[in-house]
Amino acid sequence: MQENNTTHQWSAKSMKDFTVFQAELLALNKAVKYAATIKTIFPVTIFADNRASIQASSSPKTTNRTARENFKIFLENPHIKLLWIKAHVGYFGKEAADSLAKTKAKSNDVQLDIKLSKCHAKNILRIDMMKQWKSEWDEGDTGRSTFNIFSKVSLQSTNWNRADVLFFTGHGPLPSYLHRLHLANSPLCSCGEIGTPIHYATSCL
Fold first, then answer.
1. Of the four, 41, 50, 65, 72, which is 20 to 30 A from 20 by CA?
2. Is 1 within the bounds of a domain?
């Protein structure tokens, strides 16, 4: 954009799994690449309102592939400057870019096919895994004694010791469990009741 006149623009419909950071970083990448093709002795300034994408593209330690590419272009083209501006305050170029993005998002265009970052791909897989795990845990017919204690799935450790695990799961040297595995002739305690952990803890003292 030059003197409030659009000289070049680019837009694409991102994938549904794209984060705001990835979309901003990709748009910045396209702007940086275009700026590098401009033959001029004057500074070229790119304005962006996303601090995360600016910081990632300005750091030599960034691990994001697109941000590394941006940093390299900035390094090779010192006349290209990157500045932060506040969002939604009426900057003409910023408002034009936002309008273009909204139009593209509502369009029926084919989504941009871009390889997800390793970190983002892991996050998507983790979310899907947790959903599947929760569904199987809620609708399952095994492990119900543990389900009554922990109805929600979690990757955090419970810090149970061996005795806790044996008691709360019932998977220990108890008649009820051994009988399930066909390792005992009867599930009954010597007192005549089912030999479960709760029985030994509350009744057969």
1. 72
2. no
